[in-house]
Amino acid sequence: MALTKRTESSIVYLEAKYYCLWRPVKEKSNGCETVEVKNPRTGQTLTKHGYRYDTVSGRVLKLVKYDTNDRYPVRYFGFKLHLVDGTETYVLDMPYYSQILRRFLRVAKNIDWNEPLSITVFKGKKSSRGEAEETGIWFRQHGATVKPYYTREQPHGMPPAVFDDELQQWDFKEQHRWLVDRLKCETVNEIETAAQSIAPPVDPDAMEESVENIPMEDDVELPPHGEITDDDVPF
Predict the structure, then answer these.
(1) Phi, psi at residue 69, to the nearest 5°?
(2) What gap in Å lies between CA 168 and CA 184, rounded to an integer?
(3) Confidence band for 212, pLDDT divided at 50, 70 and 90
(4) What's the farthest any 2 CA atoms get from each other in the chain?
(5) 123: helix, coil or strand?
(6) d(Cα 18, Cα 182) in Å, to the nearest integer?
(7) Which of 4-13, 107-116, 152-161, 177-186 has the least mean pLDDT?
(8) First and final CA of the chain: distance in angstroms?
(9) Cα–Cα dist 147/129, whole Å
């Protein structure tokens, strides 16, 4: 009998923020960066430590929803995308109202879950109105861009945004809820089926992300239309 040395898998938690893939650490360590950010709720300045990366690549293993509900003063909810590359596991946080989830919702239907996926985060260009740069998010497979499946020109059943005359702005709430529902009902199952070739089947009872693995950040992105209520979350 031949024996091979066992290697332990390491898990790297990532967030799409500061125009990069950010790996947060609790304390300052060798080689990490320090950034000063403002808490959008209180205006308080916070010091964060972590590492910047441009791209994460791997086979998607699972997509897990999480919701802290009433367990913390601030409710955190969204999805975590698990990717594997060799012995490495990467867990990308996609909060419910985050830009990366909004982009992911539109391209997920065009992703081949049997093939590796690359996700790149970068600083976009300023708008013609001189507003701050947007966070650019680029999904690729086989060196080519994964194009959105749901678009304004080809909605594929996606409800249109509604213009609020009183606020004089577009309301994307119902559209966002509809796309999240497609993610829960279709994409999660498609990922699980494809992942069976690289990992044991996902336990349905383990679909809720462990609270201990959810970073409790103070600089989370606020929803585009003010504070949320339970009616805003289709979980």
Answers:
(1) 50, -120
(2) 31
(3) very low
(4) 75
(5) strand
(6) 28
(7) 4-13
(8) 49
(9) 26
DSSP H helix total and E strand total for the chain? 3, 12
> Which amino acid is located at 81 in the chain?
L
> Would you say 57 and 83 are in contact if contact means Cβ atoms under 8 Å apart?
yes
Query: What does R_g of the chain's alpha carbons equal in angstroms?
Result: 19
Residues 6 or more apart whose CB falls under 8 angstroms from that of 4 comprise none
Q: At a CB cut-off of 8 Å and minimum separation 6, what does 2 contact?
A: none
Task: Name the band, by pLDDT with cuts 50, 70 and 90, for residue 57.
Answer: very high
Q: Per the structure block, which two tokens stand in for 154? A: 């080809």
- AA identity, residue 57: S
Tell me the CA distances in angstroms from 41 to 35, 171, 187, one per residue in order.
18, 22, 33
Query: In terms of Cα–Cα distance, which of 175, 161, 176, 113 is closest to 139?
Result: 113
pTM: 0.81
Q: What are φ and ψ of residue 194, in 5° steps?
A: -65, -35
Q: What is the DSSP letter of 203?
A: P
Quote the CA–CA distance of 71 and 37 in Å, as a whole number: 25
Backbone angles phi, psi at 78, to 5 degrees: 160, -145
d(CA 90, CA 131): 32
Q: What three-state secondary structure class fits 37?
A: strand
State the virtual CA torsion across 78, 80, 81, 87 in degrees, nearest 10: 180
d(CA 140, CA 17): 19
**What's the rounded Cα separation, in Å, for the pair 93 and 82?**
9
